[in-house]
Amino acid sequence: MQPRTGTLRRADNSGMPTLWDILFLVMLACVLVFVSWVGTLNYRQGMKTEVTKHHGRAWLDSLTELGPKRGEEGFEFPACAGGLTPDAIEQGAKPEDIKTRWGECQTALAKGVEALGEQENPFTGEPFKFVSKCDPSDRGTSGAVLFEKILPTPPGSAQPTAASHLAPNDSLALKTVIRVTVCGNGADPIRIGEVEF
Q1: Rounded CA gap, 170 and 74, in Å?
Q2: Rounded CA gap, 167 and 148, in Å?
């Protein structure tokens, strides 16, 4: 039997990395740096969303705490007074006598409640703002808060309630269910909760 002949190269046993080894290690290092960078960006965006949710919870907590006190004498936020119940109306209270509006109440709360007055938009660093809707086509709404009033629909409707933007000119004479929603990263709506105010 004849020994095989060919052009096989002998393995390099010098222990030094080859050019391909070096290229592979450089590429691996680049991938690790890129993955770390993307992870850091995602973490920062996630934290901004969490801060926005914290702002929304602060509003929900304040409305929850102050809601039952709105009809009391000497209520600390006169711009938010009102909140008549059906029982109060039966006893002679007149909603038309209460002139408070949501816009004035919202401003009074932002100035008078410490946890609300110090808020700023984590996505832009600008002062906190309120919007009429979270609009993914408008990234400027990221980090904002949306207040909606929840109203009952007529009997027989497919949906028992309907939500609409709580406008600055809306009356606060009657008790109203308010939904607090924040606009997250990408301006997607994130519901925080509902409260009777």
Answers
A1: 22
A2: 8
Residue 172's Cβ-side half-sphere holds a number of Cα atoms within 13 Å equal to 25
Count other Cβ atoms within 10 Å, centred on residue 115: 14
- Helix extents (H) in the chain: 19-66, 86-90, 102-112, 114-117
- Name the 3-class secondary structure at 113: coil
Residues 58 and 119: beta-carbon distance below 8 Å: yes
Tell whether the model's pLDDT for residue 22 goes beyond 80. yes
Check the CA dihedral 196-186-121-102 and report its sign.
negative
Q: State mean pLDDT over 158-178.
A: 92
Rounded distance, CA 85 to CA 89, Å? 6
Query: pLDDT at residue 6 above 60?
Result: no
Start-end of H helices in 67-141: 86-90, 102-112, 114-117
Give the residue from 56, 59, 67 showing the smallest Cα distance to 196: 67
CA distance 178 to 197: 7
**Confidence band (pLDDT; 50, 70, 90) for 3?**
low
